[in-house]
Amino acid sequence: MTELEYTHCPLCESEDYKTYLQGKDYLYSQEDFTVVRCEQCKLLYTNPRVSVEEITRYYFSDYLPRAKKKRSIGNRIRSRIGQYFVDSRHELVKLLNSNNGKNVLEIGPGAGDLLIFLKEQGFQVCGVELDTNNAHRIRERGISCYLGDLDCIVNEIAPQTFDAVVLCHVFEHLYHPKQTLKTIYSLLNEGGIVYITLPNIESKEAKLFGKYWRGLDLPRHTVHYSAHTIKKILLNSSFSIVQSGNHNFPSSFVESIAFCTVKGKWPPLLYYPLYYLWKIFSPLHCRLMGTGVLRIVARKV
Description:
The protein contains eleven helices and 13 strands. It is of the alpha/beta class. The protein has one domain (69-214, 226-300): 3-Layer(aba) Sandwich (Rossmann fold). A seven-stranded mixed sheet has the order 8-7-6-9-10-13-12, sandwiched between helices. The protein has a four-stranded antiparallel sheet with strand order 2-3-4-11, with no helix packed on it. A two-stranded antiparallel ribbon has the order 1-5. The longest helix has 13 residues, at 268-280.
């Protein structure tokens, strides 16, 4: 078992905290971890946590989406079915167009699907990716992609280069979120925006499932944000809040049910039918109880 490290609050740096819940890594190691609440700013974070040097051991082979030159028939079917349900990318396009967002940087693009989509929509795009294989595949598609941690390679990028920076299910993984926001601030043009989606620890979904909630994703999620705390860290980093709301993400609910029942992942043959079935009813689900994921947009002041 990996030796854990104790840390202070990533937002206010206080060391005054109380245990919020005991959870488990249901996706991979089955190890136990603790989430605490800062007594000063109320931020929730994993403490003790796996060190940044050791955390890669918990990103198993199929955790990150992988870009493949050849896709199986099953993948093609899932992709074809999925295109009839996915609308969040089109919402992002509308947001970028309404904010004159021509040059877009995505942090943690994974397989690069969103970058490829935005490029097809006429945007100038670029990525920063930790995974070597994904970065290589993205470059093969004719898209510029830096390899490494943003805070470490920022000197390779000219300041005030981008109109928008996108982080989809990335911000909750960051060990030094205030530093990363400072870096993002330096890369944005005047009036540029940052677009973030991340799990909402104060959502009805999170409260319903408790320690079985998929959005905890221990130990890979180091910080567990609510609408209040993500806004607070953005405001403290010289951003203004443009909009916030629910982000439709049915897999969180479906996988949370799996954690409650089989204490792990469902096999793909069961997961995908349930996922797309739930996707059909997701608008009603969002209306009745919201979702477990936040979408927030903030502007450089």
